[in-house]
Specification:
Elements (H helix, E strand, L loop, with lengths): L1 H5 L1 H4 L3 H11 L6 H9 L3 H16 L2 E5 L1 E4 L28 H13 L4 E4 L9 H14 L4 E4 L2 H11 L3 H11 L14 H7 L6 H13 L4 E7 L5 H18 L2 E8 L14 H14 L5 E2 L3 H4 L1 H7 L6 E4 L20 H10 L3 E5 L5 E4 L2
Parallel strand pairs: 1-8, 1-9, 2-3, 3-4, 5-6, 6-7
Antiparallel strand pairs: 9-10
Helix pairs in contact: 4-12, 4-13, 5-13, 6-7, 7-9, 8-9, 8-11, 11-12
The structure holds ligand V47 and iron/sulfur cluster.
Length: 371
């Protein structure tokens, strides 16, 4: 691998690119300006090689996946973000709400197939009270103590604090006592105020998102981080987003994984176009390089599509997420990927990308290697 990486010094002619590449390969941190330069350069192959070099130092040849299920208890949402085709008004004919029995039945199905994690997030109805969020976690954990509960985004936690008058710390402590094990990374979108004003003006802002995660880390609750890219943001704003995450990670070390989410425009008020596969791969590679204090970068097959996700596993990513079973959020916006995958299918996708499939739990403990 080292010799192959060094070959970029014979093939790339761009001196500034090579200076930055050298810095990365020496294990030094790059700054925002340098990350923007990498983004704007068109040295895709060299960028992928550098990112993959860094990834292999951290994760070897393993590519991780998890047997999990996503459950979205309702799609009714008062925030109506313009990039989201999932959240609808209560009067919309597509509106639905699961009762507790339905939620538990879905967890039961996961449990029967040997699943480990349930990922619960949803729309935010104005008429749900605080206890509803706590109850869902409590009931799931009570019935299935072995299932890891990764639930509620920072946006939902912020909302719960707002409607109950409690602090983030109080809300998270109650959730933890009810059985919450980890927070997913959703709701980050792009931190820039300029962009948030356009795409999601009403929900938790950057400062609030980061404060929720910081509080969770302090309470020993690990969290994930995302970035929704490919709509109205600039490259500089993407890098600024990564910078804010890197800074908090330096302080707490509580983030487990970074997940770039490629924007899908169908059925959204924001509209626009899909990202290109070149942009997807650059974003995976640059996040791997920039977020030097994150152990994992997820190539989320739902937004990337299975084929780009396989290439991403050679461009710095080391994780595909999971079997999922029933993805609704990105499917509402037009993704053509499957709703879920079997373990066999994920193992096959990973093997054919040249990596060793490693089944993990939510906390990246390896539970089975498929050699
Ligand atoms: O916050 C909404 C995104 C997120 C669209 O933490 C869209 O392990 C693309 O965060 N096009 C929810 N994306 C999903 C999410 C997630 C997924 C998998 C694993 C984890 C984890 C987290 O979906 C939302 C939003 O950023 N989203 N609309 C859209 N049109
Ligand atoms: Fe609601 Fe989340 Fe969709 Fe925004 S992104 S409309 S908060 S479900």
């Amino acid at each position: 691998m080292e010799l192959v990486v060094e070959s970029i010094f014979n093939t790339v002619k761009d001196k500034e690119f090579l200076r930055i590449a050298e810095k990365v390969l020496e294990g030094k941190r790059i700054n925002q300006e340098e990350a923007v330069y990498l983004y704007k350069s068109n040295e895709l192959t060299a960028l992928g090689l550098i990112a993959e070099y860094i990834n292999r130092k951290k994760n070897g040849m393993y590519a991780y996946f998890i047997v999990n299920r996503q459950i979205n208890p309702t799609n009714v949402c008062m925030y109506q973000c313009d990039f989201c085709a999932f959240g609808v008004k209560k009067s919309d004919p597509r509106a639905y709400e699961m009762d507790m029995e339905e939620i538990l039945k879905k967890v039961e199905e996961l449990y029967q197939m040997g699943g480990r994690e349930v990922h619960i997030v949803g729309g935010i109805p104005s008429y749900w009270n605080y206890d509803k969020y706590i109850e869902i976690v409590r009931e799931v954990k009570k019935r299935f103590p072995d299932i890891i509960v990764k639930a509620w985004t920072a946006v939902e936690i912020h909302h719960m604090a707002k409607i109950s008058g409690k602090s983030y710390q109080e809300v998270l402590t109650e959730l933890k006592n009810a059985g919450l094990d980890a927070l997913p990374g959703g709701g980050a979108e792009i931190f820039s105020d300029r962009v948030r004003q356009i795409i999601a003006p009403y929900k938790a802002n950057a400062e609030e998102y980061l404060e929720v995660h910081k509080t969770a880390h302090k309470l020993g609750i690990p969290t994930n981080a995302t970035m929704l890219y490919g709509h109205v943001e600039t490259i500089e704003e993407r890098v600024e987003h990564m910078e804010m995450l890197r800074k908090l990670q330096d302080e707490t070390g509580g983030f487990q994984v970074f997940i770039p989410l490629a924007y899908w425009p169908e059925g959204t008020r924001l509209g626009g176009y899909r990202t290109s596969s070149v942009d997807d791969l650059k974003t995976i590679a640059i996040s791997r390089i920039y977020l030097d204090n994150f152990d994992h970068i997820k190539a989320y097959w739902v937004t990337l599509g299975e084929k780009v996700a396989q290439v991403a596993l050679n461009f710095g990513a080391d994780d595909l997420d999971g079997t999922i079973q029933e993805e609704k959020i990105v499917h509402a916006a037009g993704t053509k990927s499957a709703y879920g995958h079997s373990v066999d299918k994920l193992v096959n996708l990973i093997k054919k990308s040249g990596k060793i499939p490693a089944e993990r739990d939510t906390f990246y403990n390896v539970v089975k290697v498929y050699d």
